[in-house]
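Cross-posted from the bioinformatics board.
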Amino acid sequence: MIHGPDELLNDYKSQIAVTRDEKELEQVRVALFGNSGAMTNLIKEIPGLPKEERSDRGRLLNGIKQQLEGAIAARLGELRVERLADIVETEAIDITFPGPPLGQGHLHVLTQVRRQIETVLESLGYQVELGPEVETEWYNFEALNLTAGHPARENWDSFYFTPELLLRAHTSPVQIRAMQRIKEPPIYIITPGRCYRRDAPEATRLPYFSQVEGLAIDRALTVGDMKGTLLYMIQSLYGIERKVRVRPSYFPFTEPSFEFDVTCGICNGMGCKSCRHKGWLEVGGCGMVHPQVLRNGGIDPTEWNGYAWGFGIERMAMLKHDVDDIRLFYESDLRFLEQF
Amino acid sequence: MKLSYEWLGDFVDLTDVSPKDAAEVLTRLGIEVESLTLVDLSQIVVGKILEQVKHPKSRNDLWVHQVDIGGGRVQQIIAGAPNAVVGTLVPVALPGTTVPNGRLVKDMNIAGYKASGMLCSADELLLGDDHSGILILAGGTPGEPLTTVIPSQAIMDVEVTSNRPDCMGHLGVARELAAGLDRPLKRDFMPSFTGTANPPGRELVKVIIEDPDLCSRYIGGVIKGVKVGPSPEWLQRRLRACGVRPISNIVDITNYVLLEYAQPLHAFDLTKLLGAEIRVRRARDGEKLLCLDGVERELAGGMLVIADSQRPVAIAGVIGGEDTAVAAGTVDILLEAATFSGPSVRQTARALGLRTEASARFERGLPPELALAGARRAASLIAELAGGSVHREWPDVYPEPQEPVRVRLKPWVVDEVLGTHVPLQDSEAILIRLGFHVKVLGDGEWDVLPPVFRLDVTIPEDLVEEVGRVYGYDRVPPTLPGRRHDRWTPLVPSVDRRLDAARQVMAGAGFTETWNPALVSGRKLEALRIAALAMRVSNALSDDMDTLRTSLLPSLVDAVALNRDRGRNEVRIYEIASAFLARVGEKYSQPEEPLRLAAVATAGNTPDSGRAAFYALKSVLAGCLEGLSAPACTYQRGAAELFHPGRCAAVILEGRQLGYLGELHPTVADGLKVEGRLVAFEIDVEPVLANSRTPLAQPLPRFPAIDRDLAVVVEEHVAAGLLLAAIKESAGDLLESARAFDEYHGAQVPEGQKSIAFTLTFRSPERTLTDAEVDKVMTEIKLTLEKRHQAGFRV
Ligand SMILES: [Zn+2]
């Protein structure tokens, strides 16, 4: 069938108008402008026309071509809008249906708490120091003024391999080793790590546990500086509303010595069942480093002084996450570990 | 240690100071009050028994009392004990009152008899644990509150630090309280009382210290003609409040002085001491002593004993002997007040498994001056409450009298250490309140003499502490130290923080971190044959924690078993911790403590599931190393005790073996009670961290790559790693990467052979490669594989 240009224009315009999707429209476009499309064929005929007709014919066909291309583009726009509207109208899902399990593993809660402690104290310029868990009697006791027969030794009942070799009862030996290694203060270090004491396992203590101790040695440090450091640490870990108090106590390796308490997070220090109506929770021990301990570490106590503190990572985690049995940390029950 | 608030009030005026206030002051001074029990007796009244008859109907032993409760009122009260006889004064709880033990008293009807109130026992009033009968009062007026006879009680449970033996009694604690409250102490440390009777005590009893290294002082107070009987109510009440059972006046007084002065005392029946002689000496092997608690104990050679001329009569500082004890008929006594060496008493008490009120005090090292104070106080009480004549000039063997230790203090140091200003006169006043003598020297320094009972104060820092704790550490403002330093150490990330990169990979792969105890069962390590380098604890608490682990894997397998027991089938866990390996040939030196990363995962029940899990875990391990920015490791067939011999790889990084990856040996899982297969790895992480490098950016490729797959058919035994090495060697520069992705056995390949599929990526950094170029390389690769490994190729 041979169409004249006008017929062709009208015919295809109506075809374009009734296309139902982009695929049908593409078919129409090919029928017009493809290699053997109707429009293509008409244009191919132009060179065979008498010379004087060619330019008029050319102009006419070009006008029609532009109209058809315009119609196709317009229809394409309409169809796209319809298609996108259709997508959003018909594809609603049940958003209450759960996603599949992620299968992500968990970090141990003690790792998380240790990380927080390290991060907070690093921000004050303290560096992490590590040391051996199997220690000598000298580093674990003698260097810390805990000589054999000292009545305080009872609190550090230890596991021995030989009379000279034992599992460290605290991370304090790392402090001595650090003083000997660094030699020249200022020294600002923290010593996280595992410790061991010969206590039968129960809900509040285990024969194995983890500590973080801190040590600052500098010129003219004060009890106030120690209090400020502890307060900064506790507020950073538990929130700015917490308060810290230091209570006189006794350790052979510090003088003066203290226990430090934190206000109970449940009652804000007013007293409740969880803090046994004291308003305060015991966290750890601290004090100004005993001059003999400095000497044992090779530091001159007439020139330098310092403070130190220590606490159990488990204790911090128990306070932070309301854990009531220390044994849970080392039992590896996934139902517990996956809560953190 | 239990303290009675009432008793403290003997020494310091506690007007307007509630028990709670006192507890707060003591805690802030360093004597931590762990609990405070308040016993309010103001609601209980005094009653007088007018009539007592047995309940006629009840089958239990009940007595019906008519009780005068004052104001002309008589109550009928029924009680289960017979001791409230007519005429006695008793505590009465009327209906509507709550007794200190928490019980609410109501009107009752017992088998037809009305009961309006309750007669109280000491136990019910929380005045002791005696519930055998009604508490009989020494005095009082019917109808008056019980507090007119017995004050309301407050019992503090305190924790005294080991450096303060002087605070193991009420007087020492009262001194602290007085200093904290800034009120005078009403009692001098040294009582002025001395005996007057003749002849001098030292002519009646001979005291010899044979081992002065273990006993620095021994005083033997001689008191004759005492009358043994019950102690007065107030004394019994105070003992009970502190948890001590009253026995007889003499014994009670020794206990009373122990609780007051912290000086343990012992009273011997003087007539039962053979040879009127005391020898303080080490026990001889085989000697035995029947102790006051009725137990006969065998004494070891090193233990210090008190002996008479023939035999041990007491274990020094721990417990007395039965044969020479004060009994009902005792008339003459020898009062022992001695100072024994702390470590020696501790060792003996430990060896005997017997910790007494006395040993707990001696263990801390008592000042010898305390012995005389305690002896005088006890003698005066005995004279007052048990009669008898106290002889003058007791034997007092004190070979090396305690030397006063003077401490030089630059008083301005107080401010320097505390970080706040304490006026000098305040510091001085505090020291004086605590019993120190302060002499101000010309240069402004202080010459300080601690009181004789304060052996713990020897250096200036000790004095700063005394001032600080009374001044109040709450008054020291918190500060952060900050100085202008000319030297510092730049921040080095901690090992644990660096390992967080590996933790991140493990978490992403579904592994949960565990912390397991390092002390494990040595027997178990032996059964697993990994005990050769294990360090064994000589004083283990139990044999399931007697040895340091040489590998983290057994703990992890145990943890898998535990989680299986608790209903979890698939378990993926890991741990980062040290293993402990004795140094070969140096059993007595510190062991190596390599920091390890170990993981265990359940791996189904079939050979194929185990194999798949092996490769999956291999990827996790590779991911960890990549996360730690270490170079990739290589694997060689390995052999390790815990691993399946056919499924074990030694993990090698830069030529150094890190550890093993593999399926666990079936006997391991079985021995540790886990069903099914387990895959695991355990590596040393320190060499990984040492090889960690900051990644440097590589230019992105500018030209397209060409991918080719190659299926290589070889004998079963030829490892993919070998083929890969041959491919890389023969391919030249254009090969960007090569990876094996499939292994096939079956119909498509001959029996005894397998097909391994590789995907190879070729790229040039300078131009777009043509197929012809890549074809040429592929031919080269195939030739090499044919030649080296007799390989065929599948299309
Ligand atoms: Zn609270």
